[in-house]
Design goal:
single chain; alpha/beta; Metallo-beta-lactamase, Chain A
């Protein structure tokens, strides 16, 4: 793993866009002179990516015509001592390459394909990692231990599982903490969590900033917490933006995949956002989402209401 880290640092980061019509920074954060503690977006697409398998919609067709792909939702917490990966997407090798080194550890939200299957690249057929720390819930850890091929990663010591507890903060380094938050979602194989990341100068002096990482959740009213309560001064919210409207997938029953629609989230958060000094960014967009057209009416509506679309390579300082 040390050898790979050294080699990765010698390779240039790749610049590409995760928005169909939007540019992307794609810079190497480890060579940045900006605020050292920050959050970086590594991917913005829903689990199956863009273009989507078996689809020739306008979004997928345009990306294919440009001979490129949009990376699956994932992010990096960049601290002073290193960085941590949030979700192991199928695009994990490219996302780690863009960061320039291996992460200090990986945090998993749940057991849907876009959020943990990148772990396969740590196995004997690929990196053959030694003891990569992987943080997840007890139920997610049980799923990995008891089901192949993931169980082999544990047995061979490619990954070292650490079980987090809901609502209990984990100190990543002095002044930087992550707290898992349980959220309602389709929990076929594991439960689901979002992460609240907080940056402190010291506990006594209070919080410098925070970010809520929430790629997947069911309707807001199914959550025991109020999403509006996270809109505090200096906070950033990176939220589930899977669908803009219920008309995107005419052949699917959206009650089986009840993500909050972006159009609904705007109505829920518009008033509280206007009164706060916070920011809201949507990501985890399905291939069908019209927000991929950054100049379309939906994207203009979103921006006019004071919201943002996350872009790969975007760096958000705490």
């Amino acid at each position: 793993m040390r050898l790979l880290s050294a080699l990765l640092l010698l390779l240039p980061a790749c610049a590409a866009s995760d928005g169909i019509s939007a540019p992307d920074g794609g810079r190497n954060p480890l060579s940045s002179s900006a605020e050292p503690v920050a959050f970086r977006v590594l991917g913005t697409a829903q689990d199956a990516g863009l273009p989507h398998i078996g689809c020739d919609c306008a979004n997928c067709s345009q990306v294919r015509a440009e001979n490129r792909t949009v990376r699956v939702a994932s992010a990096a917490i960049e601290g002073k001592s290193g960085w941590w990966l949030l979700d192991a997407s199928p695009d994990m090798p490219a996302q780690i390459h863009d960061q320039g080194s291996m992460p200090q550890g990986i945090f998993l939200t749940h057991a849907h394909i876009g959020h943990y299957t990148g772990l396969m690249y740590l196995g004997r057929e690929a990196l053959g990692a030694q003891g990569m720390p992987v943080w997840c819930s007890p139920r997610m850890a049980r799923f990995l231990r008891e089901n192949g091929p993931w169980s082999q990663l544990v047995e061979l010591g490619n990954i070292e599982l650490h079980e987090f507890q809901t609502d209990q903060a984990i100190e990543l380094e002095p002044g930087l903490a992550l707290t898992p938050l349980a959220v309602p979602h389709r929990d076929e194989f594991s439960d689901t969590h979002g992460f609240q990341i907080e940056h402190f100068r010291s506990r006594r002096e209070g919080r410098l900033g925070s970010l809520l990482f929430l790629p997947d959740i069911d309707q807001w009213d199914r959550w025991e917490q109020r999403i509006e309560d996270f809109l505090v001064p200096g906070a950033h919210l990176l939220l589930d933006g899977t669908f803009w409207s219920g008309a995107e997938l005419p052949n699917r029953d959206l009650s089986e995949i009840p993500h909050p629609l972006v159009s609904q989230s705007i109505e829920v958060l518009r008033g509280p956002l206007a009164k706060s000094q916070a920011s809201v960014h949507f990501f985890h967009l399905n291939h069908s989402n019209p927000l991929w057209n950054r100049e379309g009416p939906e994207a203009r509506t979103l921006r006019a209401a004071g919201f943002h679309l996350a872009e790969r390579g975007e760096r958000i300082p705490f």
